[in-house]
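Write out this protein's structure.
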Amino acid sequence: MLHAAVLPLPWREPLAAAASFADEPWTLLLLSGGGGSHARWSYLLRRPTRTLMLGPGDDRPPVAALTDLLGPMSASAADGSPFGGGLAGLASYELGERLDPTGLGSDPDWPDLAVGLYPTVLAFDHALGRVLAIGRAAASACAEAAAARAATWLQHDAPPSGPPSTEVSPLRAEPPEAYEAAVANVTGRIAAGEIFQANIARRWTGRLARGVQPFDVVRRLAAESAAPFTAYLRLPGRALVSNSPERFLGVAPAQGALVAETRPIKGTRPRSADPAEDARLAAELLASAKDRAENLMIVDLMRNDLSRVCVPGAVETPELFRLESFANVHHLVSTVRGRLAPGRTALDLFGAAFPPGSVTGAPKLQAMRVIARHEPPRGPYCGALFWAGVDGAFDSSVLIRTAAFVEDEGGWRVEARAGAGITADSDPVAERLETEAKIAALRHALEGGG
């Protein structure tokens, strides 16, 4: 059994605490913002004791490898923090090929899975204005020492904040005609009965200006358009910045059981600076039969995914078509919940439901095959960042509003994508405009307002 030690500490902003370690491989900042019940806790993780990277030539089953890395379950004692140590990292979209083969191929720049085992955590409680240094170990004295080490992370002075504006030179979008043609092709496949829906994405690529670092991008996003699942991950030669509003899967212990939740997003309208127009756009989204149908298809898909590992009859949908508003867009969000079957874990659920249905389509596997005809490998985009606690708890985001950075001799090249759910009555121009609304905040952070 693992022992836990928790040291309460004075408040410090998570971004300031993470800045000193931004260039250190395996630093991970999970930054919650934007208010609401899903934006209470942020986490800073560094120096994992073990790591797991699955790439070409490594055929280990992902769920078994993750389960082995996490080790035996242990009761939580983290003073209210949902995450008090365990696994955390990245599952790229192409990890789905290892779970349900569809012929996706792989991304040459990114591993399918990159995860660390983190026995020390800084947990930032935004609601109570406190920081918890958490350590876990087989012996209580070692757990106390681990918590003390985590506490020292707050003693580092944050480096200068870098350039006042972040710049990409230049940022190039895929031609609008190419995206509209892809949408038209998919609507044709839907009309032919091949699929019901597919999420088709458009790419933007570029290169960070000299002297600009990926961490500068997450700083700007947090200041301008905070989201519940903002994140920064540094890997050797790679970095990831995400400003996702969407939970993929969450699992929490409750009354002796593990309760799973997913909150798929489907349905989007842009925000307006004019309050009356903004309200009109929100009302239009709520009343849209097309967007509700799109959302309901993914709810049904996620209900099916959860049912694979939940108690029969225990999967429910307590909330449909809730309007949630972010810096640049309004979204429709639904909630699906279930109780994991005895003997099943959050990692089993992750294996059963990955990749997220809201960014694939229905039926899922055939939608993924259609996506692969129109897009190169996605890498981190539409994958997930996740943590898995030693008490069975779990949380994860869908990697939308995400920029993937790869380092080379010229600095950092960057790729970002934005997608739209294509249905039978999709209009290619309208879907393209939706991708531009979704990418706006991330593009502004990358281009410095350019």
